[in-house]
Design goal:
The chain is an all-alpha fold. It contains two helices and no strands. The longest helix has 28 residues. It starts with a helix and ends in an 11-residue tail after the last helix.
Length: 62
């Protein structure tokens, strides 16, 4: 599942939860999707951090 689809479904379940409540299956789906979202988010964040290159140069005098 794509990240946008994942977020949309999580939001759908959240709205339904507030409006009318969720079935046991929907609660399990919501929890599984949230965990999947966090896993993807952490992986993407780690990839971004790995791309950062620190350059430490001495300050130049003017």
């Amino acid at each position: 599942m794509e990240m946008d689809q994942l977020i949309n479904r999580i939001n759908e379940l959240s709205r339904k939860s507030k409006a009318e409540g969720l079935s046991e299956q929907e609660i399990a789906e919501r929890d599984r999707l949230r965990q999947q979202y966090l896993t993807i988010f952490k992986r993407n964040f780690r990839q971004e951090l790995d791309r950062i290159e620190v350059v430490d140069q001495a300050p130049t005098k003017h």
